Amino acid sequence: MNPQYQDIAAAFVQSYYLHFDDNEKRQTMASFYDEETSLMSFEGQNLLGRKKIMEKLSSLTFQKIAHSITKVDCQPMFDGGVLVCVLGQLKTDEDPPHTFSQTFVLKPYNEGFYVQHDVFRIAVHDAL
Amino acid sequence: MNPQYQDIAAAFVQSYYLHFDDNEKRQTMASFYDEETSLMSFEGQNLLGRKKIMEKLSSLTFQKIAHSITKVDCQPMFDGGVLVCVLGQLKTDEDPPHTFSQTFVLKPYNEGFYVQHDVFRIAVHDAL
Predict the structure, then answer these.
(1) Helical residues (DSSP H) of B1-128, grouped into ranges
(2) Pairing between strand A82-92 and A98-109?
(3) B81 touches A: beta carbon within 8 Å
């Protein structure tokens, strides 16, 4: 298990949302994902591989987005990867903030990591 | 990758919360976890191994708890495991419902699975 998992998770989260929240940088996020094996679930839609994932990220229709991170939990995995669970709020354009959760599995690759699994959900419930 | 991953995730989620929401059954949840290697993050507190995890679950002070599951996202993992991300609401005693998210990594073991990673968070934010 990688003893640096907390630093790896913190650096990843900072870089990921910095890219996501900048309309130009978001177009360069392909390098976070593997060409063939990365899996994303985006609001229940499943996307496999870098190309499909980037098509999804490029198709999002907001003009502005801002993620505010509330908590980052991370755990070392037995293959040297890192499990990263993010809880936060996001604001798109002039909409009210929504709670979101996003889970990443980072997989070692060369000297760095790529996103093997990415699960994103906005918290919208039927009323209890 | 396990082609049954969706069925595995659905059966796991149903069984897990059925046990959790029953004060007697919750005491029998040790079999979900590995004695030495299971990792839990519970509201930021890290617990390693079945004994520590069960001590935590046994120390919870509510009289009644009910989870309501909004969404379950799952992905097959490359070692035959399953990533399971749960979004829902929970009610303890007479408190108002809170959004929670919980991520599991299920690892194959004999004919079944155990929980290798478990990350639980209630969504409480500072106001944006």
Answers:
(1) 5-20, 50-59
(2) antiparallel
(3) no
What gap in Å lies between CA A63 and CA B120, rounded to an integer? 32
Nearest CA-CA partner of A37 in B81, B1, B7: B1
Q: How far apart are CA A120 and CA A69, in angstroms?
A: 14
- Token couple for A14: 């900072």
A44 CA: distance to closest CA in chain B (Å): 7
| Residue extents of the structural domains in chain B | 5-122
| CATH architecture label of B5-122 | Roll (3.10)
Q: What pLDDT, in 10s, does the model give residues B44-74?
A: 999 999 999 999 999 999 999 999 999 999 9
Q: How far is CA A14 from CA A57, A68, A94, in A?
A: 18, 11, 24
Residue A117 pLDDT grade (very low, low, confident, very high; cuts 50, 70, 90): very high
CB atoms within 10 A of CB B122: 15
Pairing of strands A82-92, A65-76: antiparallel
3-state secondary structure at position B30: helix
State the amino acid at position B104 in one-letter form.
F
Q: Does A70 touch chain B (CB under 8 A)?
A: yes
Q: Percent helix, strand, coil in chain B (nearest 5)?
A: 25, 45, 30
User: Reading across the β-sheet that carries A45-48, which strands appear in turn?
Assistant: A45-48, A39-42, A112-122, A98-109, A82-92, A65-76
Contact between A85 and A72 (Cβ < 8 Å): yes
What whole-number distance in Å separates Cα of residue A73 and Cα of residue A9? 8
Residue B71 distance to chain A (closest CA, Å): 8
